[in-house]
Amino acid sequence: MFDRTRWFLAGILIGLSLQLSQPGGAATPVEEAVKTAQNSSIEAAQKALNDGLLLYQQGTAEAKRGTIAKWEEALKLYREAGDRAKEAITLNNIGRIYEDLGEKQTALDYYNQSLPLSRATSNPSQEAITLNNIGAVYDNLGEKQKALEYYSQSLPLSRTLGDRSLEAITLTNIGLVYSNLGEQQKALEYYSKSLPLIRTIGDRWHEAGILSNIGGVYDNLGEKQKALDYYNQSLTLSRAVGDRSQEAVTLDNIGAVYDYLGEQKTALEYYKQSLPLLRTLGELWHEGITLNNIGRIYDDLGEQQKALEYLSQSLTLKRSVGDRRGEAITLSNIGNIHNYLGDRQTALEYYKQSLPLLLAVGDRRGEAVTLTNIGGMYSDVGDKQKALEYYSQSLTLSRAIGERSIEAGILYNIAVTKRDQNNLNEALNDIQASLRIIENLRTKITSPELRTSYFATVQDYYEFYIDLLMQLHKTHPKLGYDTKALEASELSRARSLLELLQETNTNIREGIAPDLLQQEKSLQQQLNALEKHRIEAVSLPNPNPTEIEQIDKQQLALLQEYQQSQTQIRTASPRYAALTQPKPLTFPEIQKQIIDENTILLQYFLGKDRSYLWVISQKGLTSYELPKRAEIETASRNFRNTVTNPRLRNISQKVAEASANLSQLILQPAASQLGDKRLLIVPDGILHYTAFPALTISLTSRQNSYLPLISQHEIITLPSASTLAILRQNYGDRKPPTQTLAILADPVFSPDDERIKGKLTPATTEKLESQNQGLSRSLRSSDLAWPPQRLPFTRQEAQTILSLVPSASSSQNLDFDASRTTATDGRLANYQILHLATHGIANSQNPELSGILMSMVDDNGNLVNGFLRLTDIFNLKLSADLVVLSACQSGIGQNIKGEGMVGLTRGFMYAGAQRMVVSLWNVDDEGTAVLMQKFYQKMLQQKLSPATALRAAQMEMMEQDKWNSPYYWAAFTLQGEWK
Q1: Given this model, what pLDDT does residue 890 score?
Q2: Among the four 69, 270, 853, 864, which has the fewest Cβ within 10 Å?
């Protein structure tokens, strides 16, 4: 299944301020006797109104019930006094409270009593307010056209009265109706009229709601970053003015965006902030929505029973308040869970309850998603043709309302179904159309983190595309489908890293002709305007196919012009084009830019049903089908455990067997091509954690023999081939450093260190933690002690390395000088090589916890911040040929689908490192010192390249009995530039 229906809350601005009547004027002498009695009733009524208002301002459901009781008392008194004007206002206010409590039908009854009284007493202001409120009830009940009728009556009245506040609110409510009908551009037009009106009169209360509604439009259009920007503005305002209802709504909206982007835990945090607010306020209508959203999250997290509990609560609430649209959505979501659990018949029953409700309330988005879910169910039970019929209906709807993300998902589902019918070429067209939408939506997310999260949620699309191309390659081996699959694999990986790297130098606009830049900007604006026109055209009740076809032709022509413009810019400045939209390398570009005659590239892709390996040389491309992901993962975990487990790592036969088992799966098929070539490895999934140098093609005939891959090959790992291309591009533009080597080693972690006087006490430890916020949490997550243990061999390691370099061109930073200040003060930009010998923390669950431990105590015994966080590393300005992280697990991080390893390596590459030497597991302190000494000797004295020097050092370690286990030497790998 592609998508489960998700409710997107919009800040519904219906409640126009409560209107309390004021006491009447002085009575004339003739009427005095009658007026005295009336005034007594009116004064009592006014007191009841005021008492009710005080209760209302408490904001709780119980207090609101008390408000109704007080105002019913006032209503009775106004009727006794014959004051129909105030009776109308009080009826409206009571209706408003019932609206707050989710009792929409009761609210409507009161509004319908108020409206004729307002008209009879010639009170156009109250009439406009009541018309607006009636419209809002019909909107919530799903009767959109009826809502528009009432709003259309209210709007001219507010304009005649010159009531800009009422006009703005009515415009907003009309916009909300259009948004719910799927006409997002029309909704945006109304919001863009209401927002400046509200701001002109300084109504920040309602401004917060309009901002939230605008966010909802961009949310529905798939522009999640823009949606978040508006939601966050709304949240700040609603909190500033104390509007807890709007605050709860906006919290829910933000949660929905994070849910969509794959950040379920973050979404749940927002929903759980919203829920208690709504319960305190007694807003049952919105509470039902939030319960639905929480249920969705638990479904995504695999807790289906918990999800059903929340959805059942939501369904009960929605039915009790008459929320037919919400009821339909929750029914569809419950159907999804039963479908997932294999109970297809029950699922279908829920879908069939949902669909007519969605049709009745005009929710075309919900209808499209539910049709998709029904199609998915039929696909699961093997009725592919019926599935396609439902998908076709859903596709038409999603295009009509401009829901690009849903359209992409439906096209993906159609492609999968056609593949199952063996219609491979048709499936190819559909998945390519889907990915074009995904690529477009992805670029609209500004935040690299959220862009990465979103890309992870659509990796199934790329996996399917790659697998489909390779299946086509099987049937048509000479048509180049394997080349397309390789390029699709490159398209699907490390894209955020690629974009981050291209941001590192932003001055490449210099030298570009202004008219060329203006031409590109103009074409982009024209494309945007044309896309807006297309959405408006397809959103009409009766779209004109001829007009839409003409727009599509115009788009194609403009797109070609735009691409030509980019080509001109690329010719003048290749890095500018990369900055605006970096393009992954093609197969010919990889051959030309990345490898040479002595180098081959091995690119892996691990799939659910089967995996693939592409071997690229200057002679051509060869592809291999490998076992499914789960089988490779099992062998990889066994290999890593054998190499690192103290009980197994020194048993050579065990290591050889584990290595051979994994190698048989991922290397043996291509063994004949490897020769003695340099190997550039682009891993995928669990292979990011795999020490390729310790693998072996096969066991020799001699028992207990073990010949690792590094004995025949120099090995370098890359996030992607395109990453190396942009690293070279970036480095080529930098001014070369003037100094050779800077070392930071053997920091002081604790006041108890022998290098200072003092004693470690609980109070000192507490202060140490406060100076290094987040570090103790990082250490706990990485299973390291607090305070960290000193690494005595790093001092020996540093001094030996420094002895190889003239003191005039090196920088020694030991003890207290191995500090965060030293790392961040800018001086490191002057060195070709940066060597950090200390504890490293690479958190595979939370990359933000990753970092490097520097001195936490200064030479006066004062506690200082010694945690060089990943964010600090990103902000370093380096020009280093090489950064060596002689630390534990410095080469790992969070392995994100579609992005690869997110950790320290990425930070240093962004900061300016051309290549890095990092570790894949907790390394031995003494063994690492020996390896590093050998590595630097070969690199600095023998003038070997870093990759060649590292291989030579590792091979020497292998030949020594004390260090021959891969545990001691195979953890370190070179990433980045190999030349």
Answers
A1: 58
A2: 69
CA–CA gap between residue 949 and residue 957 (Å, rounded): 12
Helix (H) or strand (E) holding 621: strand 620-626
Residue 226 φ/ψ, nearest 5 degrees = -65, -40
- Classify 759 as helix, strand or coil: coil
Q: Which structure tokens are listed for 701? A: 């005939």
- The dihedral formed by the CA atoms of 398, 404, 406 and 412, expressed in degrees to the nearest 10: 110
Q: What angle do CA 597, 603, 609 make, to 5 degrees?
A: 150
Whether residue 259 contacts residue 274, with contact meaning beta carbons closer than 8 Å, is answered with: no
Which of 578, 423, 418 is CA-nearest to residue 498?
578
Nearest by Cα to 615 from 657, 564, 672, 561 = 672
DSSP state of 58: T
Q: Report how far Cα 229 is from the mean position of its chain's Cα atoms.
A: 14
Q: Which two tokens stand for residue 164?
A: 């800009």
Looking at residue 559, its pLDDT comes to: 55
Using the structure block, give the residue that is written with the tokens 């923390």: 841
pLDDT at 700: 46
d(CA 136, CA 14): 6
Closest CA to 458 of 493, 497, 506, 500: 493
Please report the pLDDT score of residue 895 as a whole number: 60
Token pair, residue 519, equals: 């031409």
Closest CA to 603 of 582, 584, 622: 622
Q: Which residues of the chain carry a pLDDT beneath 70? A: 1-40, 446-449, 496, 499-512, 520, 524-525, 527-541, 552-553, 555-582, 698-706, 733, 757-787, 842-849, 871, 887-902
Give SS3 for 917: strand
Query: Which value, to the nearest 10 degrees, does the dihedral of the CA atoms of residues 569, 573, 574, 578 take?
Result: -70
Q: How far apart are CA 22 and CA 11, in angstroms?
A: 31
pLDDT for the residue numbered 530: 64
DSSP letter for each residue of 324-354? HHHHHHHHHHHHHHHHHTT-HHHHHHHHHHH
Residue pair 426/437 in contact (Cβ under 8 Å)? The answer is no
Neighbours of 372 (CB within 10 A): 29
CA–CA separation, 849 and 835 (whole Å): 21
pTM: 0.75
Neighbour tally for 939: CB within 10 Å = 23
CA angle 398/399/405 to nearest 5° reads 60
Cis amide leading into 751 (omega within 30): no
- The pairing of strands 867-869 and 851-853 is antiparallel
DSSP notation for 864-875? ---EEEHHHHHT
Whether 286 contacts 9, CB under 8 Å:
yes
Amino acid at 622: T
Q: What is d(CA 665, CA 687) in angstroms, rounded to the nearest whole number?
A: 12
**CA distance linking residue 593 with residue 588, whole number of Å:** 9
Going edge to edge, which strands form the sheet with 840-841?
A: 840-841, 851-853, 867-869
Axis-axis angle for helices 364-380, 404-420 (nearest 10) = 20
Q: Any long-range contacts for 804-812 (C-beta under 8 Å, 24+ apart)?
A: 804/936, 804/937, 804/940, 804/941, 805/740, 805/741, 805/940, 806/740, 809/739, 809/740, 809/741, 810/739, 810/740, 810/741, 810/742, 810/743, 811/739, 811/741, 811/742, 811/743, 812/743
**8 Å CB contact between 966 and 655:** yes
For residues 431 and 427, give the distance between their C-alpha atoms in angstroms, rounded to a whole number.
6
Average pLDDT, the chain: 82
Q: Which residues contact 898 (CB under 8 A, 6 or more apart)?
A: 452, 455, 456, 458, 459, 462, 492, 493, 495
